[in-house]
Amino acid sequence: MSSRNPGTAFDLEWVSRVRVNTQAVLKRAQSIQGQKLPKKQWQSAWLLKAVTCIDLTTLSGDDTPSNVHRLCMKAIQPVRHDLLRKMDMHDKGISTAAVCVYPSRVADAVRSLKAANSSIPVASVATGFPAGQTPLESRLQEVRSAVNDGATEIDIVINRMLALTGQWEAMFNEIRLFREACGDAHMKTILAVGELETLSNVYKASMVAMMAGSDFIKTSTGKEAVNATYPVAIVMLRAIRDYFLCTGHKVGFKPAGGIRTAQESLVWLTLIKEELGSEWLHPHLFRLGASSLLADIERQIYHEVTGQYAAHHELPMA
Ligand SMILES: O=C[C@H](O)COP(=O)(O)O
């Protein structure tokens, strides 16, 4: 990952003066979806780029050491070797950006990756994911325990009650505490945008999270009714740009929740490139949080490379 965002002092003025032009945001969101995607001959390269930005995720009640192990093996070899060879990419060390699991499965993931001699980071959701409705001390303890077990990236959830009641400074203080509990682990802050009611709240929460030292801001847990959408992404990306222009610190962006198709991943890459520039199109500043996206990307790459559609058994780990 890149150098960290140290954060700034809390500045209520910066948060309060925000006005979001909803019509303009919706128009921009519509235009990005209608836009031409990378030309056919470049699509496989773009899809591989998307693969390298995936936080390959499993966040299920029935997660076990064995399905976490399979996830880790898939993260190490996300696309079939023969397909990569045909693209002359077999020796480029293509892997996903991270694996993402619940705190109680971190040790399993660390063990599997270590046994396979892989340095892929383990990310863990924490702080009472997904609702964040547990006592502060237990949320902090969860972060410390995930870090102790070897997670080097922590995806925290914000306290939506504080955001919805305009207690921005209290939210800043909580996130600061989470940042301290993370230690050297990079912190991604999940805004749960589907529960923030307005685009202004999305902008304000983004700014508060960055002021408090988040290394990434992330749209959603994947468990809200509405997850990563293009309008909220545009607001968050503009906040990242504003924060960068004011402080010189680059904060990463992670859309997550409901991203399932190769086509969508191309739209996300295009949006990031246009809003923040190519510099952000790397795993240290861009992640796609997804549990089932990789399967569709691999299928699409199979089609690009062989001209045929893969049967289910031909991509068994997808
Ligand atoms: O953080 C990642 C999300 O939980 C993944 O959501 P998803 O299962 O809808 O891909």
TrEMBL record:
Reaction(s) this enzyme catalyzes, per UniProt: 2-deoxy-D-ribose 5-phosphate = D-glyceraldehyde 3-phosphate + acetaldehyde
Catalytic residues in the record: K218, K254
EC number(s) recorded for this UniProt protein: 4.1.2.4
Family matches, as Pfam families: DeoC (PF01791)
GO molecular function: deoxyribose-phosphate aldolase activity
Pathway: Carbohydrate degradation; 2-deoxy-D-ribose 1-phosphate degradation; D-glyceraldehyde 3-phosphate and acetaldehyde from 2-deoxy-alpha-D-ribose 1-phosphate: step 2/2
Gene Ontology terms: cellular component: cytoplasm
GO terms under biological process: carbohydrate catabolic process; deoxyribonucleotide catabolic process; deoxyribose phosphate catabolic process
Source domain of life: Eukaryota
Keyword Lyase attached: yes
Keywords, alphabetical: Lyase, Schiff base
Enzyme class: lyase
Family: Belongs to the DeoC/FbaB aldolase family. DeoC type 2 subfamily.
The name this protein goes by in its record: deoxyribose-phosphate aldolase
Source organism per UniProt: Oryzias latipes (Japanese rice fish)
